[in-house]
Write a structure and sequence with these properties.
It comes from Streptomyces bikiniensis. The chain is of the alpha/beta class. It has 13 helices and six strands. 52% of the residues lie in helices and 11% in strands. The model has no long low-confidence stretch (mean pLDDT 89).
């Protein structure tokens, strides 16, 4: 969907506006919840964009915050209406990480560290199938194929000539050694990774084993940045049963500094391409 009607981003922007109105009245989320006879967690979820918000919710909140500007109320009501539209990913049914997909769809740049596998946006169809089948052993072939289709659709941002996603990926050496599917499949995947790394808006670096301990040792994470200045950056950490989204300035700042250290310690672009080529040859030789 076009970025200006992305429901995930609309909910997030609307939540930010509602938080500003609450803070301007010096009210806590608990106080607002008491006034509206709802739970405090509902107010928090509305403000962080994790929950769908109705026009009635907006009207009630504007009443509590004593918003007298009807144009502002109408604008917020329209944002609530837009936020309830469905993104392209809803056509695939229940996707556990749909919030992340909505953010990624609207993001201008994405910085990621991946210690275990080749990042999803840079995977081949066959590699993605093997990764998903291995990670979710109880999934049916239909479920696996649905997830692969979603992953393939997400990759369109890489190929988008008008609004390509600026991707910077630091990949641990272990992801290149790990044989996913077969050695033949790994050769194809690494050759594809090399091709993608040649795109002007894609940067790939390998973190070699020889570097030892480094700032990414605690695990995978991604930092999303958006074209609209009003949208704060988000750190995304994927989990097995739930995901973590960090939006506080100090949290994003810490992860951004960590990522700068990662980029500095990883192999540079030319060294990385040479390393990937050598790994592809090793897999080809068996």
């Amino acid at each position: 969907m076009a970025s200006n009607v992305n429901p995930t981003v609309r909910r997030r922007r609307l939540g930010q506006e509602l938080r500003k109105l609450r803070e301007a009245k010096n009210m806590t989320a608990e106080q607002v919840a008491e006034r509206l006879l709802v739970s405090q967690s509902k107010i928090s979820r509305l403000e962080n964009g994790r929950r769908s918000i109705s026009q009635r919710d907006v009207r009630d909140l504007c009443g509590v915050y004593e918003v007298e500007d009807e144009r502002m109320v109408d604008s917020l009501m329209q944002m609530a209406k837009d936020s309830r539209q469905q993104g392209w990913w809803h056509a695939f049914g229940d996707i556990p990480y749909s919030v992340y997909i909505g953010l990624e769809t609207d993001a201008e740049s994405l910085r990621m560290y991946e210690p275990q596998i080749i990042p999803g946006l840079l995977q081949t169809h066959e590699y993605a199938e093997a990764v998903i089948a291995g990670a979710l052993p109880e999934s049916t072939p239909a479920d696996i194929e649905k997830r692969v289709q979603v992953r393939t659709r997400r990759q369109e941002r890489i190929r988008d000539e008008e609004r390509p996603l600026r991707l910077w990926a630091v990949i641990d050496e272990g992801a290149l050694h790990r044989i996913v599917g077969s050695r033949r499949l790994m050769v194809q995947q690494l050759e594809h990774l090399l091709e993608q790394s040649q795109l002007p808006h894609v940067t790939v670096q390998v973190m070699p084993f020889a570097m030892g301990a480094h700032p990414g040792i605690s695990g995978q994470y991604s930092i999303l940045e958006f074209p609209d200045a009003s949208d704060s950056s988000v750190v995304y950490i994927e989990g097995v049963t739930s995901d973590l989204y960090l939006e506080k300035t100090q949290d994003v700042g810490k992860y951004s500094v960590m990522y700068e250290h990662l980029r500095a310690q990883a192999l540079n672009v030319d060294q990385t391409r040479e390393f990937i080529s050598e790994m592809a040859k090793k897999h080809a030789q068996g």
